[in-house]
Amino acid sequence: MHDGSGRIVVQNLTKHFGQVIAVQNLSFQVEPGSVTGFLGPNGAGKTTTLRMLLGLVNPTAGHATISGAPFYQLGNPARVVGAVLEAQGFHPSRTARNHLRVYASAMGVPDQRADEVLHQVGLMEAANRGAGGFSLGMKQRLALATALLGDPRVLVLDEPANGLDPEGIAWLRGFLKAFAVSGRTVLISSHLLAEVEQTIDQVVIISRGQTMYYGPLDALRKSQQSRVIVQPADPNKLVAALQEAGFSEIQPAPDNRIAIANATVQQIGDVAAKAGVALYGMQEEKVDLEQLFFRLTSGQFAAPPQVPYGQVPPVPPMPPGYGPPPPGYPPQQGGYPVPAAPPQQQTPPQGYPYGGNH
Q: In the listed set 191, 221, 251, which residue is the last one of a domain according to the structure?
């Protein structure tokens, strides 16, 4: 039996699919009263981890628990955890209300709960419409309503903002925060980093199936330096004044600008004014979650560098054991060797009638 805490614990979780390592030694904990973002590039192992947490995939090693028990030991799991991995699974001709009543019956909750969650997610006006005609955003809301039927203490959502319009995203953000403030647990997987940043308290960042960061979002931000980029009339004079004022982390930047770490625009402006140095431009660079995300995941699935339109991309390096093309090999097109066309055959091969079906 579970302990009712709503705590999620993932401990040394590992999953191999043949020779492919989808998740490797992954560990983190999600506490009640918080919204935790589970972030990583596509293919990093997020969905596989959630499927192991929800008992849909057996781990190769390690374990995951919700409220102190694995998913299969939760008794009536829908009353403990509401989960949305895909906004699908709706019979196209069944109304939203009837869809929810089917699930309510399976969970052992009264039919009236269907209308309560429809109202909660803003779908009451569409209660009698077939789910097959819903937009993607409406399907996301209906999936969330299904997850809420059992009044769970835990929500596990995979890409919950997918398909929502700006109003829907703002609504979802407020809903998830209110859900967590009530002492419940929210774990959301997403790659919409700018949106998640406004919603989450804790963050788990994974890459290649491994934990790259786990902890409070504010602590992650504070671990990174912000800096001020300034374009002074006299860079040398400003650098000397900044050093005298105690700013030691100063670096040159393009276009005769300088970058000062751990400083604010106001501080640099005051030093420049006192030193009599005119400033032609100044901006403060703050590291956001998206920048931190790319640093931590190190471009796991980064695309090759962009090439200006109309230019030929560079030839990729040949694998070991391959040399340059032999003399007389045809020219390269688009950066890749193109074999010469075979010479046209003037006479038909022996054994086939000329002009027949070969």
A: 221
Q: State pLDDT tens for residues 1-36.
A: 788 889 999 999 999 999 999 999 999 999 999 999
Number of domains, the chain: 2
Provide the residue type at 358 as one letter: H
Q: Provide the angle, in degrees to the nearest 10, between the axes of the packed helices 96-107 and 112-120.
A: 120
Q: Where are the beta strands (DSSP E) in 224-309?
A: 227-232, 250-253, 257-261, 279-285
Q: Do residues 64 and 9 touch, judged by C-beta distance below 8 A?
A: yes
Range of the domain at 44: 8-221
210-216 β-sheet, strand order: 81-84, 154-158, 185-190, 35-39, 202-207, 210-216
**Residue 228 to residue 258: CA distance in whole angstroms:** 8
More confident residue, 179 or 194: 179
| DSSP three-state, residue 111 | coil
Distance CA 54, CA 71 (A): 6
The model's pLDDT over 102-157, given as tens digits with 9 standing for 90+, comes to: 999 999 999 999 999 999 999 999 999 999 899 988 999 999 999 999 999 999 99
Rounded to whole angstroms, how far apart are CA atoms 161 and 169?
A: 6
Can you give the pTM of this predicted structure?
0.71
**pLDDT tens, residue by residue, 256-279:** 899 998 888 999 999 999 999 999
* Residues 65-80 as b or e (16 or more Cβ within 10 Å = b): bbbeeebeebeebbbb
Domain boundary among 221, 255, 280: 221
Write the CATH number for 244.
3.30.70.100
Please list the residues that pair with 69 across neighbouring strands.
66
